[in-house]
Task: inverse folding
């Protein structure tokens, strides 16, 4: 019903400040018509709405924008990378890529689809309304699951030079031709060159050209390991960020993931080119590597938050970003709640075309409501601080994407959640057994049933 009017009223609503920050304002009603926010009204409102969403003890905010994610790998790597004594530098190449390759070989299309549905379920329930994911080009499951369950999805299918780079690029473009819905669509497909050490200058220049011609976005891993930095230095005599600059890939339509080992000069290049950095602190923290939000933010680089191939809990990632920033700077005021919320919402929205990420008339109605009535969230003196430092995905009361309520009462509508979870778990457990047999994973002892 594209022209139905929905009113969304909560105790507090997070609105953008002209300075670029955000504030929680009391007694605001958001009017949603069709896919978009029609108006934001302060004070009493008297309209004849088709539907009313009320959260008298809660807060409404823009949905989280997860700027770097691997939907398949989250469930597949769960409990495997944690506590692993694998060197952080080589984990991507020794474990993660081989296991991802094996998933493509071992799992049936139905099983892959089941795992992607689980990932979308998890993303929605944590209050994520948009995700930028980097899947393998042959896996369309994320786009199908997002279309089905109502998530806004931006896929940047992997392109590599390590195999046949022309075939790899053609496969990614075929995904775009098939699934991309255009600027007003909920399903978008861009380009995902894997990383600076797995893509040739020829390939990166071609991708920069294509992104311009197709008016689309690009995402790539940058300076995520010392191994990558050293490889790029030996091959090209420059830093990974300089390599992107020289191949034409820096710019406002590019999201670079991680930047753990960037140099100060690289931060200047990112800021000056308007490139966005996707910051994923937990995926590195679990391997003992520190990467600090404050370093990027202080340098003026537009910085969003991603969960990478870890838990997709955006609250947890946000809190980790804040705590690591405070620990590394020794300053408790670093990375405060409004700053982190802006990184989790408006920064990602701006990076992905500026059509969502703020509660503002004309933008897509991507909103979440968080109930602040639970014991760990009361009493409330500063709602933004309670939200960032104390809330969990279980406190998400509703999620609206594109004007449609896709989580209601904490449950994803339009699916049998238990069944989605069970089917995905069975598929991943079968993959793990195959990975043990292939020597990719060490075997674990199982008690016979
Ligand atoms: Zn990644």
Result:
């Amino acid at each position: 019903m594209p022209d139905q009017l929905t009113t969304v009223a909560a105790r507090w609503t997070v609105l953008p400040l002209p300075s670029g920050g955000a504030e929680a304002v009391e007694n605001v009603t958001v009017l949603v018509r069709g896919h978009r926010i029609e108006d934001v009204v302060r004070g009493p409102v008297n309209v004849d709405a088709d539907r009313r969403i009320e959260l008298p003890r809660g807060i409404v905010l823009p949905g989280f924008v997860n700027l770097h994610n691997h939907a398949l790998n989250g469930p597949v790597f769960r409990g495997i990378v944690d506590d692993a004594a694998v060197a952080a530098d080589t984990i991507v190449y020794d474990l993660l890529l081989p296991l991802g390759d094996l998933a493509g070989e071992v799992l049936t299309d139905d099983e892959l689809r089941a795992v992607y549905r689980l990932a979308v379920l998890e993303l929605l329930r944590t209050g994520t309304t948009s995700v930028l994911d980097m899947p393998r080009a042959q896996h369309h499951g994320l786009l199908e699951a997002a279309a089905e369950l109502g998530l806004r999805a931006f896929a940047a299918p992997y392109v590599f030079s390590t195999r046949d780079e022309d075939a790899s690029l053609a496969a990614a473009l075929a995904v775009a031709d098939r699934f991309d819905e255009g600027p007003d669509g909920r399903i978008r497909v861009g380009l995902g060159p894997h990383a600076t050490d797995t893509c040739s200058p020829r390939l990166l220049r071609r991708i920069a050209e294509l992104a311009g011609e197709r008016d689309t976005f690009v995402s790539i891993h940058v300076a995520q390991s010392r191994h990558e930095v050293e490889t790029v230095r030996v091959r090209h005599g420059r830093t990974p960020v300089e390599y992107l600059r020289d191949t034409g890939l820096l710019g406002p339509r590019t999201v670079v993931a991680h930047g753990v080992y960037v140099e100060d000069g690289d931060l200047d290049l990112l800021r000056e080119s308007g490139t966005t950095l996707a910051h994923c602190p937990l995926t590195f923290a679990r391997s003992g590597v520190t990467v600090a939000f404050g370093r990027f933010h202080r340098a003026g680089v537009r910085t969003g938050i991603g969960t990478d191939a870890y838990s997709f809990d955006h609250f947890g990632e946000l809190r980790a970003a804040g705590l690591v920033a405070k620990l590394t700077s020794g300053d408790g005021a670093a990375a405060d709640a409004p700053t982190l919320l802006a990184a989790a919402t408006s920064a990602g929205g701006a990076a992905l075309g500026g059509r969502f990420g703020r509660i503002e008339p004309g933008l897509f109605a991507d909103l979440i409501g968080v109930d602040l009535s639970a014991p760990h969230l009361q009493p409330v003196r500063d709602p933004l601080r309670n939200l960032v430092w104390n809330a969990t995905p279980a406190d998400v009361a509703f999620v609206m994407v594109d004007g449609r309520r896709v989580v209601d009462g904490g449950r994803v509508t339009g699916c049998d959640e238990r069944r989605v979870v069970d089917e995905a778990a069975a598929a991943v457990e079968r993959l793990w057994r195959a990975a043990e047999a292939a020597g990719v994973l060490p075997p674990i002892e199982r008690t016979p049933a």
Notes: DSSP finds 16 helices and 18 strands in the chain. The chain has two domains: 5-62+361-410, 64-351. The mean pLDDT is 94.
